[in-house]
Specification:
The protein has helices spanning about 35-45, 90-105, 125-135, 155-165, 185-195; strands at about 5-10, 25-30, 60-65, 75, 110-115, 140-145, 175. The chain is α/β, with parallel strands linked by helices. The longest helix has 17 residues, at about 90-105. The two termini are about 20 Å apart. The structure holds guanosine-5'-diphosphate. Guanosine-5'-diphosphate binds near residues 36, 37, 148 and 177.
């Protein structure tokens, strides 16, 4: 499958100030989970999600759109959670409101891809996020990252553990490795399925 022709659109604290799209998927996960690397690979552009990491943008909603005319489909790069541990209570609260507001109210949102570190996840924060999504009936798919970092002898057990930690079957989780390119195509396919007009 061809890489997705994504381009950076806009950053915002309030999704209502972003372009209205017909369909959108969101990528979320704790910081350092490998989200930027994966988005770059999905688009096959080395520095695409770099935009989301520039000073001032790391804690914003960063919208990427499919380059087509008219622009109707997008991918939302949500700020990574976890790093906020050192932030003030006030900063954490406003971050949470921004993300929750987006996830609850964004009309075009079709699917949330929750990225979990394949080596160590799900962490307590991952579980909290997943429980929150489920409690609000927000559709989600678990993507386990950094498959290459798990020793091959450990993989069957790790896959089982990670899935069980999410109350899922092993087959429900998409395992990827940006380093090895594992299942990146599968992920592109899943993203495009959710962005396709027939949904
Ligand atoms: P983000 O904070 O979620 O956007 O994470 P990044 O994409 O910046 O990745 C965090 C770190 O994990 C970087 O050092 C990446 O090189 C590394 N990383 C990302 N994906 C993979 C992967 O598939 N395999 C390995 N071994 N490292 C990865």
């Amino acid at each position: 499958m061809r890489p997705l022709d994504l381009e950076f659109s806009q950053s915002a604290t309030d999704h209502r100030t972003l372009p209205e799209l017909v369909s959108e998927v969101a990528f979320v996960g704790r910081s350092n989970v490998g989200k930027s690397t994966l988005i770059n690979l999905v688009a096959n552009r080395k520095r695409l999600a770099h935009t989301s990491k520039t000073p001032g943008r790391t804690q914003l909603l960063n919208l990427f759109v499919l380059n087509e005319d008219p622009v109707t489909r997008g991918l939302m790069d949500l700020p990574g959670y976890g790093y906020a541990a050192g932030a003030s209570k006030k900063a954490q609260a406003s971050w949470q409101v921004m993300i929750e507001d987006y996830l609850l109210d964004r009309e075009s949102l079709e699917m949330v891809f929750l990225l979990i570190d394949g080596l160590v996840g799900p962490t307590a924060l991952d579980k909290t996020m997943l429980a929150w999504l489920r409690s609000h009936e927000i559709p989600n798919i678990i993507v386990a990252t950094k498959h290459d970092k798990v020793k091959s002898s450990q993989r069957p057990r790790r896959k089982k553990e990670l899935a069980e930690g999410c109350d899922l079957e092993a087959g429900d989780v998409i395992w990827v490795s940006s380093a090895k390119g594992l299942n990146v195509d599968k992920l592109r396919g899943a993203v495009m399925d959710w962005l396709s007009p027939s949904k």
